Amino acid sequence: MAGTEDRPLPDDIIEHIFSFLPTRDVVKTCVLSRRWRSYWITVSDLRFSVSSHHDSFVDSILRLYGRGKVRKFHLDFNSEQLWPSNINSWVDFVIDHEVEELRLNLNICYDYNWLEQIPWGDYTLSPLLYNCSSLTRLVLRGCLYPSCESISWSSLKSLSIDNVSGDVLQKILMSSPVLEYLTLERFWAVEEINSRSLRELVIDASLAVRGLRILAPRLLSLRVRLDHFHDIIRIVEVPSLLEAELDFNGPTVSDFCPLKEMLCKLQNATRILFGPWSCWVRIVILLPDGRVILSM
């Protein structure tokens, strides 16, 4: 409109817009406005995608970072070479800056012809992260988890993790008193999930692990995706459950007894979804007394 002056965007609006962009794109905005030339060094959300250990962009940004706190740090690492010392330095940086949301997605495409010549391997999570009490959301992919004496995730509400062992998971659950959302992928030697705070649990595994017990009195939603049923899930205590999604690739006839037992534990759920294997079962009836009738 004629006669009106262009009003600069408030800082909080700019930061909100930048929070959706990869950090490389945020840095590029410095050429758009004199005001934005140094704004990128104060954004609280950092998102990096790295495909080469020769890429010094992350180190450069963290060296110039001018804010006391990091709200989000996302790292997608896709490379044939992994340099744990680099990742450790980045993780240590965000721990020092009281990171709230951390995502490490490490996808290492190994070139086995060079295994003996290049000093890299799987990334073992920095033990310092186990005592990062500022974390509220954590996503870990492609990491190894060292044994530890203690974990202090007193603020953690959401955890998505893969390749975790039973003993490490047990310590995580015992040390995360406000954890509400848990996603497990490709876990091993996990015998029990016991948490009084969990509200949503997602189990996505391709391994045939047997006898997993679930004790979660406040659990509202359960999603299970497995290659086969094979008596893998023993639901012991989920009295608050409202929704369940069960996706197995075809249980055999021998699986129906434990399957019926599991469904009995879901009798309070108002919504139960079955995956493609439901074609094996023509009728599923939950009787008022809690009994289950399955018909092939």
Structure description:
With 296 residues, the chain is an alpha/beta fold. It is built from 6 helices and 17 strands.
Note the main sheet. Answer: 10 strands, parallel
Number of helices: 6
User: Globular, elongated, flat, extended or rod-shaped: what is the shape?
Assistant: elongated
Q: Classify the helix fraction into a percent range.
A: 10-25%
Poorly predicted parts: 112-121, 292-296
Rounded average pLDDT:
79
Features:
single chain; 296 residues; alpha/beta; ten-stranded parallel β-sheet; three-stranded parallel β-sheet; 17 strands; elongated; disordered C terminus
Quick synopsis:
The protein has 296 residues and is an alpha/beta fold. It has helices at 11-18, 23-28, 57-64, 84-96, 166-174, 256-264; strands spanning 45-50, 72-79, 101-108, 123-124, 137-141, 143-144, 158-162, 181-185, 192-194, 200-205, 212-215, 221-226, 233-237, 243-248, 271-274, 283-286, 292-295.
